[in-house]
Every structure is written in structure tokens, then in C-alpha cells.
């Protein structure tokens, strides 16, 4: 079976204006000799190779990188240029080292990525290693000269040797245009013919931005589309295997069906073609994902916490030892600090009586010293006591305002915590503002209330910001797509004043735009209409357009079509963009309507937009209601209104000088205040336990994982000379985020300790999923999240990269400042596996120094040539003085042409070979190809079933897959392959280092080469090598920040190959014959 990108000239593809999936497109020419020059500056004949880019690559170039590989014994002789199909020529390399050196760089070979955004110039490179020029650098000219051109056509690389004595060769497999990433990985495909029906079944292991599939049949050497409409993707963005089945009639085909193929259509207008498959052929193997039993996992966690001395009280794990309890009693004998857990924004009141009922007697506490805090920040509060007494006691209360959770905190938790403490420096008294000289004649008598619609039903890493959940997709394939949004208006809503509607959607396609009517204007991607109560009012109330993956913000007001009670909004997506399809993500909707300023039996929350008019409130006797003003900044004040009559008050909400806020007015009866969900005494923070002075290595672990197993690892680190300390993640959360598990707590802690500690390594011990709040789960299926991750936006559509970089980015420049790794374990059995493998690796005389490596490569595609890339990575191991000689290769290209391997057994042969090599104890395993969270490679080359066959318990391997998703363990329902290789088995991997989400092939190759050079030539450990490589990648700027975030280290960062740093002599300037 071949995998290739194909331009299929059919109605469907012409209609859709499909372009092939993005790829690294290399030359297919043979190695080409470079004729020698003469003298010191006379060029020889031109050597050239070409790259053929298919016509379907019609998107304009916006950021082109170029891979250049030339073997030459004196690279200072070389001048290389690149010519585009449009005739534009850019100089890539122009005699490196000249004029700084008379004759240029005398080193051997070039293996370089040329990128306009790189931080260094290729002309200035000349290392003692081979290749003498490697890494990522700016070209002599500028590749941006090609911007705006289409890549389709013939690209020509021309190289001349401009001095005598030395010659070289162009390596075409290393001459490549980087046009980016493939969005779908196919696990299996199978067809059966039943009578006049063709039944096709296939499975994908991952789908990124995939709209759906087309099914193709080969009839008389022509490809014909078999499906009448697009076979819609089951999920836009899936990191779990998806299964498809399609039945089509073949009795009316005009000719004999001899083969079948399938193509996926991405939301960027790219098409991948998989095939051809013979009828009845079974390609690949279905991946059967392992489901996580969260109920059993939680039982193990509870047992571990109990064994560690913790008790679960009101849903919280607390460790109160006798010594700690006595100490806490002495320190807080009279007035202990109290934690209040709150679940929603609003005005809270905590009375003396409610505190007493919770077990805390604050009688006699000085009012002027009572402080409310949120994560250490003062919060305005009012303290009410009988007759204004100076001390708290019976019939007293504290009133304060709880704000909305900030967006980042809301990703991880549905509640927040506020502290009540005797802390004079944190006291912030809320003002009491009296209204004076107010008349109600011109007062505002209405306010805005709002309804929010939309549920967090699905997760997508395309969504921007801190909330990557959306309600539902809206899909329009050859017909209009609709989303109906019902809502109810309360009876008291003032219908004739209308409402404001805001719909939040995100565009779901970014195809090349087309001019469908010949007017010279490109059609927008998205055309949409909005209807309000369409059953009664058939005309649209709003119509708009949008492009690409940008937010679709719909905002309008209406006064004529509203009705009390039930209403509907209908969003209509119209695929008249010339593509005959469209898609969008519906995130949610907000409806704001007017209501009278009246108070009923319950409190009212009124919101006003920059209104400096007085506010009149009816039905509110001042003796029974209190008024408060808040705003979006957390400001809080009590208002004293003027009284118009017995049940009408007029209040001055704000002055003209305060119009930069959006005020809210709260009208509260005694029963309307909110109360904390729980009140408890927080666990004391042991500052000594957090102190990292004189520590080299900090291990931050969930307390359920702290014990004898982790002590084995710490003792080994200390024996190796690293002062190592284990710190409880709960202690950090208690100190910085009121006990709530947020990653910023760990980041703040590590930064604070960096001022007093020389530590260089960080290891996070504990896993997590992306579903922190348990959306769409129950008590049995809700996932456990021990140590959460940060998320950052990357290149293009990848906007939710789980990354460890912000934990150790102390200057917030986007680059890490310490080496960091993670063990994504959830229980002690997993921890024992990874600790044992790590100690086996560190052991004296282990296989780590064997200089043995296994290189695995998927089969070549029409453009992606994984074998060539794999060889370039393996060539980065060691150097000429200390080369790696024990190299095993499992390349699908070699197996596919091996006549000794039966045609139906190719993939199994590859699996057998890689299993044998790993079981024999290879120190390093590198894979190059496509990936998913549950498998490596098309055809499921490495799966859970293959991982189970690994028996290398004494000789675990360091794995570096150059493939998307291969360290993505965050899917909440499915066990990832990374976990199966690293934590769930005593064999397999001791480390996985690779991208978590989508990545570019060339970026992966460059990162791996620099990483391995640092480890095998410069003697760096894994963490330091990753740190150096990320900082060097960060220096290239631009889209390279995505690479810095994306590459993830699942390992002890102190792992190394135990090799010394081997310094090569500097390049010596060698004169040329004049």
C-alpha cells in the first residue's frame, strides 16, 4: 500500500478547491556532484537539483523555510541559490566565512535549516564538528522574497564551487521546502464486496481540523468519487481513535472497480489521499484504546492518601498531625485564620453564628483588624456589630463581594477561596457612600439582566484563550447548517425596550477563497444569518460574513420581535462561498434584556452601563433592604439611599469621575446574601518544607506519591551528588492559591525560590487531564488531576499546547530558565515502574553509555521522506572523535522493497524488528513519521499491543518520537501510548521527549538534532540539553515559540548517556591555491 498526496481531477475536488496536505517536500533527484572550481575564486560549472511542487499547492507562501544538505570538504567554496517557479532567485549561502576569513570556512558539510526569523546568519557559522554548519540560521538573502507566490511548480537549487582543491555533493533528500503538517493519521482500512454493495471500514488514530472524507474507486485507471456527499468527521479535532463505516452501491459504475482509496478534507482546504487499496485488502490494524477506570484509580488514590496520614474532611484532604495541631493551637489560640470556599460571584455574609456553628468562636476579635483576602490580596469588607461595637461577637457579621473567577483560574476550578484572618496589614474597609440632594424625577428606573446559553460539551485545541470548551459544531455540507438557541424571558422583562444579543462562534474553515461570480472579489468563507422567533418573523434579523478561523462575533439588538416567555434564536450557516461547505464552533450566547428596578421576595442584581444618573428602585423599604455597589474590578461599597416615599428609594450609583467602570447595584434583603459552601481552618504552611536553599534538584509531587518509592529516587540522586528535596504540591497550593490546584502556584513558588536557591532541575510527579472540572462526567468517570499544566497558544490553529515552560520561565520571555521534566503518574504502581527504570538507567555500568540507537521510519509518502530525515537525525549522534557505531534501523521503505518479506506481512515484520531491537537493550530509540496519542505511524506501527511485547526491564530506552501528539497524555478517557510505554509497564521507555500536539516535520528534525548533539557530543544531561535547545530555538523568534512550548519532557531531567564532553579542535583557515 502507498500513501500519497494526490490531485484528483473530479467534480468534487474542483468544486472544493482542495489543496494537498501540507508537507516537507524534498527533491527526488539523485545525489548530484558539484564540479570543482579553480584557484581561490574561480567557480566551476553549476550543479543543480529541482523540487517539483504539484499544481494543487495554490495557497500563497507566507513563511517559507528551506532545508539544505550539501556534503563538501571546504564549505567556504560554496555559493547556493534557490529559484522559485515565478523566477525569483534568492542567495542561500555565499561562501560562508568570507570575508572574515580570506578563503572562507574550511569545515566539512552543510546540514542547515534556513529561516528568515533565525537569530544568527548562516554566513558566520563554522564549527569544528561535522557538519560544520548545522542548526537553524538566516540565509544570505531573504526567503521572504518568495512571499505571496504560490509554491506550485519547479524550484531549482543551483550550487557552484568557487575555489579549487575541494569537491562535494548535493544531497537531494536533504533539499526540502517546509510546507508544514499532516492533520490525519490512518490506523486501518478494509473493504468488502457484498453483492452490489461496497462496504468500507476505516479508523483514524488522530484527526486535526478534519471536516470529513471522500471515498474513491479506480475504474479503468481513472479515479471516481463513490460517495455523493462528504462523509462528515465524527469530531473536528480528535485525539482518540475514530471508527467509520460506509456502504455504497457499485451496480451502476461505468466499468470494473479494481481499487479503492480514501481522502480526508481538512478545514484549511487540504486533502490527503490514502491508497490505493485492493478490494478485500486489509491495511494496518485498528487501535483499541485502553479506557481509564477512574473509579478504581480514585480508590487507589484514597488508599494512598490515607496511608500517608491524610484524612478526607468535607471533600478536602487534610493532614493534621498531633504536633501540627498543637502548634496550630498555640499560634491561633484565640482567632484562627479561616478559609471560606465560595462557588459563585455575589455578596456574601458570614455571621458570628454561622462561624460558631462551623466550630469557630471569634467572640472578641477586634473589628478593625479583621481582614478578608483572596490569594493574599486584600478584599474590601464591611463588619457589622450591634451598636457599632469594636469587637466581633453575637449578632455580628462580615459582608464582602466575590468576583467572577478569572478565565485562567476557571479552567481548573469551579470555585474559589477567601480567607478571614486577623491581619492588620491586609485590612481593606469597604466605604459607605451616602446619597445627598437626589430627586427621583430623572432617575433610571430599569436595568439590564442577562441569560447565558451554551454548555461545555466538547474540547478543542483550536479555541483561543483560557476556555477551550464549546457547545456544539455547526456544519454546512452542501446544505445550510443551523443552530437553534431557545431561551426564556421572565414575565417582568420589559419587552418594548428590547434586548441585546451576543453570539460567540469561531470560524471552522480556512480554504483558499474563490471568486464565484466573476466580479473580481473573493467570497468570504462564512456567510451567516440570524433569525429571532423565526416561526413568527421569517425574515433574518442579522446577516454577516467572516473569514478563516477568526471569532465570529454576532451582536445586535431588537425591540419588535421579542415575546415574554419562550423565544428562539436561529443561527444559519450558508455554504455559498464557492466551496459548498462551511463549519463553525458554537461557543455560547448571551441575551441582555431590560427589567424594572423593583425588588420582590429575593434580592436583585442590577447592572448598568456607565450610567451617571441616579437610580430609582421601587418596592424597596429601606428598613428591609441594603444596597451595595460593585464593579468588574472588585470594588465594593455600601450605599445609603435617599427615600422618596415609604417603598421607593433613589440612589446615586456613581459619579461622573468613575465612568470607567461598569457598575452593578445589589438590592439585598436579609435572606438574600450568599453563604460560603464550607468554612474550615486551612492546613498550616510549613515554610521550612518549602525552603530550597542549598538544593540542586526539587521534586514536586502529589502527597499520595510521596513515600518509600520516591525516597529511593531521592537517595540515588543524593548519592550521585545532587542535593535533592521532595516538596508536596499541596503545600505549594496551600501557600500560593489557597489550596486550589492551579499551575501558577508552582510557578510562583519556583520563581520565589530561585532567588535563594541554586537549584537547576525540577521534576513534577503527578498526571492530569485537560478536563479539570469534570465536564460531562459522573462520580464514576470524573478524571483525577494531580498536578495541572499550563496551556499556551502555538503556531496557526494550535492554541492549547500543554506546556511546562511557564513553570520555569522566571522572566516571562517565553523560554525556560531551568531544566524541567514530568512523570505523568497517578498511583504508586506507576511511580514504582518509572522509578525502577530510571534507577536502572542511572546504575553504574548500565547500557546508557553503550552508544546504541534504534532508528524507526514510516514509509515514504509522495513528499515526506522519513528515511532521509531519520538518517540526518541519527547522523547528529556523537562526532568524528566519538561516533556512535551501534545503529539499528527499521525503515518501512527498506521492508517494503524486501522481496523476502511477504506483501501482507510488511507491517508485522517492522513491528517484530523494532521489538527485538528494543528488547536487546538499545539506549536510544528515535521514530520519524506521523503520530497520535495512542499510536505511532500510519498502519499503527507502534500501539499498546506492540508495547506489551517489550521486555527490556533492565535496559529501558530513551524514546524521541519525531511525531505529533506522542507526549500527549491528557485525553481523559483513554490511556495514551506515552503512559503505556513510560508508566504502566516495567519495560519500555525511561523517557519520552517529543511534541505534545501538532508540529512541523522540519521543526521536529531540527530540535532532535540539536538535542542529541548536546547530549552525545557536549555531554549534557537530558534536562540541560532540552533547556539549551529550547533557548536556542526561542532565539529564532516568530513561530519557533510554538516549538519551545510544544516539545515535552516526560522523564527525570538528569538522565544522560554518561558520555564525556568531546571538544573538537576549531576549524583552521586553510589557504587555497592562488
Automatic annotation (TrEMBL):
Q: Does the keyword Protease apply?
A: yes
The upper taxonomy is:
Bacteria, Pseudomonadati, Pseudomonadota, Gammaproteobacteria, Arenicellales
Domain P/Homo B, which positions? 19-183
For this UniProt record, give its keywords in alphabetical order, as a comma-separated list: Hydrolase, Protease, Signal
**Gene3D superfamilies named among the record's database cross-references:** 3.40.50.1460, Galactose-binding domain-like, Gingipain r, domain 1
Gene Ontology biological-process annotations: proteolysis
Q: Which SUPFAM superfamilies match?
A: Caspase-like (SSF52129), Galactose-binding domain-like (SSF49785)
Q: Which residues form the signal peptide?
A: 1-23
Q: Which InterPro entries match?
A: Caspase-like_dom_sf (IPR029030), Galactose-bd-like_sf (IPR008979), Gingipain (IPR001769), Gingipain_N_sf (IPR029031), P_dom (IPR002884)
- One short Pfam name that applies is P_proprotein
For this chain, one GO molecular function annotation is: cysteine-type peptidase activity
Q: What protein does this entry describe? A: Proprotein convertase P-domain-containing protein
Amino acid at each position: 500500500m502507498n500513501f500519497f498526496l494526490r490531485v484528483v481531477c473530479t467534480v468534487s475536488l474542483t468544486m472544493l478547491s482542495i489543496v494537498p496536505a501540507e508537507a516537507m517536500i524534498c527533491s527526488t533527484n539523485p545525489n548530484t556532484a558539484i564540479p570543482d572550481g579553480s584557484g581561490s575564486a574561480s567557480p566551476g560549472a553549476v550543479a543543480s537539483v529541482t523540487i517539483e511542487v504539484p499544481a494543487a499547492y495554490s495557497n500563497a507562501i507566507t513563511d517559507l523555510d528551506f532545508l539544505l544538505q550539501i556534503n563538501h570538504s571546504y564549505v567556504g567554496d560554496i555559493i547556493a541559490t534557490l529559484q522559485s517557479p515565478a523566477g525569483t532567485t534568492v542567495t542561500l549561502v555565499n561562501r560562508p566565512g568570507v570575508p572574515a576569513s580570506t578563503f572562507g570556512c574550511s569545515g566539512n558539510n552543510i546540514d542547515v535549516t534556513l529561516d528568515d526569523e533565525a537569530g544568527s546568519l548562516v554566513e558566520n557559522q563554522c564549527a569544528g564538528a561535522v557538519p560544520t554548519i548545522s542548526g537553524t540560521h538566516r540565509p544570505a538573502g531573504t526567503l521572504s522574497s518568495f512571499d505571496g507566490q504560490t509554491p506550485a511548480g519547479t524550484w531549482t537549487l543551483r550550487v557552484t564551487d568557487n575555489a579549487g582543491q575541494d569537491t562535494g555533493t548535493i544531497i537531494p533528500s536533504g533539499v526540502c521546502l517546509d510546507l508544514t503538517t499532516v492533520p490525519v493519521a490512518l490506523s486501518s482500512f478494509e473493504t468488502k464486496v457484498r453483492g452490489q454493495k461496497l462496504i468500507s471500514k476505516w479508523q483514524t488514530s488522530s484527526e486535526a481540523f478534519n471536516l470529513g472524507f471522500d471515498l474513491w474507486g479506480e475504474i479503468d485507471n481513472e479515479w471516481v468519487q463513490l460517495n455523493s456527499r462528504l462523509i462528515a468527521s465524527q469530531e473536528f479535532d480528535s485525539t482518540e481513535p475514530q471508527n467509520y463505516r460506509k456502504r455504497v452501491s457499485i451496480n451502476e459504475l461505468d466499468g470494473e472497480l479494481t481499487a479503492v482509496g480514501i481522502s480526508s478534507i481538512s478545514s484549511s482546504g487540504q486533502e490527503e489521499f490514502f491508497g490505493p487499496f485492493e478490494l478485500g485488502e486489509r491495511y494496518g490494524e485498528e487501535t483499541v484504546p485502553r479506557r481509564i477506570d477512574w473509579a478504581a484509580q480514585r480508590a487507589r488514590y484514597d488508599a494512598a492518601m490515607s496511608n500517608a496520614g491524610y484524612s478526607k474532611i468535607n471533600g478536602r484532604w487534610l493532614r493534621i498531625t498531633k504536633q501540627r495541631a498543637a502548634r496550630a493551637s498555640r499560634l491561633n489560640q484565640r482567632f484562627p485564620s479561616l478559609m471560606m470556599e465560595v462557588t459563585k460571584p455575589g455578596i456574601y455574609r458570614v455571621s458570628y453564628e454561622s462561624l460558631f456553628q462551623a466550630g469557630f468562636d471569634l467572640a472578641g476579635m477586634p473589628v478593625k483588624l479583621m481582614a478578608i483576602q483572596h490569594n493574599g490580596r486584600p478584599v474590601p469588607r464591611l463588619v457589622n456589630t450591634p451598636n457599632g461595637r469594636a469587637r466581633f461577637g453575637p449578632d455580628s457579621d462580615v459582608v464582602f463581594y466575590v468576583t467572577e473567577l478569572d478565565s485562567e483560574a476557571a479552567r481548573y476550578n469551579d470555585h474559589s477561596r477567601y480567607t478571614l484572618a486577623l491581619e492588620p496589614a491586609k485590612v481593606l474597609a469597604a466605604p459607605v457612600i451616602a446619597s445627598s440632594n437626589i430627586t427621583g424625577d430623572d432617575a433610571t428606573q430599569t436595568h439590564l439582566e442577562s441569560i447565558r446559553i451554551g454548555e461545555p460539551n466538547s474540547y478543542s485545541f483550536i479555541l483561543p484563550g483560557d476556555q477551550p470548551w464549546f457547545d456544539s459544531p455547526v456544519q454546512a455540507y452542501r446544505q445550510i447548517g443551523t443552530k437553534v438557541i431557545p431561551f426564556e424571558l421572565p414575565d417582568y422583562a420589559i419587552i418594548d425596550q428590547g434586548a441585546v444579543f451576543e453570539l460567540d462562534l469561531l470560524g471552522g474553515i480556512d480554504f483558499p477563497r474563490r471568486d464565484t461570480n466573476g466580479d473580481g472579489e473573493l467570497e468570504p468563507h462564512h456567510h451567516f444569518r440570524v433569525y429571532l422567533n423565526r416561526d413568527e418573523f421569517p425574515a433574518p434579523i442579522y446577516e454577516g460574513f467572516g473569514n478563516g478561523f477568526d471569532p465570529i462575533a454576532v451582536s445586535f439588538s431588537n425591540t419588535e420581535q421579542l415575546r415574554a416567555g419562550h423565544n428562539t434564536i436561529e443561527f444559519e450557516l450558508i455554504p455559498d462561498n464557492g466551496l459548498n461547505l462551511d463549519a463553525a464552533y458554537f461557543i455560547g450566547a448571551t441575551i441582555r434584556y431590560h427589567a424594572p428596578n423593583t425588588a420582590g421576595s429575593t434580592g436583585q442584581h442590577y447592572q448598568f452601563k456607565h450610567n451617571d444618573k441616579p437610580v430609582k428602585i421601587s418596592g424597596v423599604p429601606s428598613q428591609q433592604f441594603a444596597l451595595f455597589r460593585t464593579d468588574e474590578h472588585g470594588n465594593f461599597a455600601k450605599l445609603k439611599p435617599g427615600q422618596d416615599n415609604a417603598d421607593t428609594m433613589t440612589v446615586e450609583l456613581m459619579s461622573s469621575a468613575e465612568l470607567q467602570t461598569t457598575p452593578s447595584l445589589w438590592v439585598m434583603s436579609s435572606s438574600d446574601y450568599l453563604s460560603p459552601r464550607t468554612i474550615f481552618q486551612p492546613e498550616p504552611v510549613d515554610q521550612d518544607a518549602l525552603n530550597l536553599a542549598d538544593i540542586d534538584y526539587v521534586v514536586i509531587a502529589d502527597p499520595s506519591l510521596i513515600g518509600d518509592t520516591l525516597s529511593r529516587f531521592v537517595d540515588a540522586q543524593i548519592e550521585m551528588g545532587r542535593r535533592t528535596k521532595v516538596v508536596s504540591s499541596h503545600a505549594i497550593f496551600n501557600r500560593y492559591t489557597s489550596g486550589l490546584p492551579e499551575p501558577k502556584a508552582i510557578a510562583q513558588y519556583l520563581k520565589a525560590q530561585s532567588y535563594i536557591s541554586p537549584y537547576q532541575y525540577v521534576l513534577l510527579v503527578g498526571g492530569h487531564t485537560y478536563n479539570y472540572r469534570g465536564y460531562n462526567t459522573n462520580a464514576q468517570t470524573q478524571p483525577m488531576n494531580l498536578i495541572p499544566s499550563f496551556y499556551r497558544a502555538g503556531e496557526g490553529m494550535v492554541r492549547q499546547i500543554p506546556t511546562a515552560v511557564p513553570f520555569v520561565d522566571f522572566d516571562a520571555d517565553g523560554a525556560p530558565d531551568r531544566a524541567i521534566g514530568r512523570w505523568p503518574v497517578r498511583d504508586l504502581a506507576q511511580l514504582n515502574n518509572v522509578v525502577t527504570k530510571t534507577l536502572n538507567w542511572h546504575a553504574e555500568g548500565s547500557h546508557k553509555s553503550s552508544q546504541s540507537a534504534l532508528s524507526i521510519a514510516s514509509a515514504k509518502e509522495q513528499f515526506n521522506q522519513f528515511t532521509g530525515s531519520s538518517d540526518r537525525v541519527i547522523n547528529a549522534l556523537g562526532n568524528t572523535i566519538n561516533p556512535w557505531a551501534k545503529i539499528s534501523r527499521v525503515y518501512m521503505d527498506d521492508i517494503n522493497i524486501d522481496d523476502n518479506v511477504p506483501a501482507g506481512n510488511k507491517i508485522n515484520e517492522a513491528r517484530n524488528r523494532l521489538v527485538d531491537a528494543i528488547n536487546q537493550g538499545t539506549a536510544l530509540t528515535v521514530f520519524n513519521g506521523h503520530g497520535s496519542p495512542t499510536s505511532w505511524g500510519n498502519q499503527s506501527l507502534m500501539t499498546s499491543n506492540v508495547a506489551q511485547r517489550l521486555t527490556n526491564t533492565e535496559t529501558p530506552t530513551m524514546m524521541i518520537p519525531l511525531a505529533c501528539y506522542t507526549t500527549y497524555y491528557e485525553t481523559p478517557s483513554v490511556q495514551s501510548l506515552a503512559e503505556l510505554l513510560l508508566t504502566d509497564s516495567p519495560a519500555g521507555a525511561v523517557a519520552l521527549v517529543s511534541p505534545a500536539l501538532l508540529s512541523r516535520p522540519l521543526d521536529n528534525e531540527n530540535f532532535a538534532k540539536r538535542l542529541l548533539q548536546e547530549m552525545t557530543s557536549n555531554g549534557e544531561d537530558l534536562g540541560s540539553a532540552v533547556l539549551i535547545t529550547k533557548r536556542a530555538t526561542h532565539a529564532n523568534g516568530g513561530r519557533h515559540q510554538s516549538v519551545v512550548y510544544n516539545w515535552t519532557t516526560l522523564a527525570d531531567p538528569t538522565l544522560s548517556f554518561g558520555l564525556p564532553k568531546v571538544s573538537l579542535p576549531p576549524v583552521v583557515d586553510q589557504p587555497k591555491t592562488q
